[in-house]
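User: Here's a chain of 220 residues. Predict its fold as tokens.
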Amino acid sequence: MDNHINIFKSWNANFKTFLLGLFFLAPLFSLSQNKSESIFTAKGISEVIVDGNQIFNISVKTKVAEDISVKSLSDGEYGNDYQVISEVKNNQLFISLERVSLEKTPDDKRNAHKVIAATLQIKMPEKLNLSIKSDVGSVEAKGVFNELNINLFQGGCTINAIAKLATIKTIDGNIYVKTSNAIIETDSHHGLVDFPSNMLGFNVWRLTTNGGNIKVEKQE
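Assistant: Prediction complete.
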């Protein structure tokens, strides 16, 4: 009788361990990933335009090269149903997150972050134009650009770059800029502003936010 009891206890313990393992592994099986990488020749391209809606993190760096590389990851419950699509039209490279599955997925943008978590990494040649807009995304940009145009609804941005003309706008996100040889124009309706008084140059940077803080430092 004791042997039967011991066997039952052992089986019961193993079954509980099995159920516990399933509990922790279940989220891994329920999530999907969709990775992509594309490389384009930069010959003839003067501007990279990013529609960053539903993309949480956007990273852009310039390099001394003749190509543009685009890496992306779509994660989350419906991550496999979405993919970053890149397309060249005339002298512009357009990048956006598009739905690639024909199956129905939640279409409520307010809840999109619950089912999709996308990131984007771009490496591009120096002295091109860069334009980014996003509803939820934050932006990190580093390098040498001709023009920068960034418009963010929820996220903030960190910029360590040189550009002839830069226009950066956020709603509540902070703006941190490190640049040189530039005249800085700032407007923060409800946040703090901090930038060097001796910042002068031929480039023009316009930084605007409703509720975020603005901080500018001079590149050495």
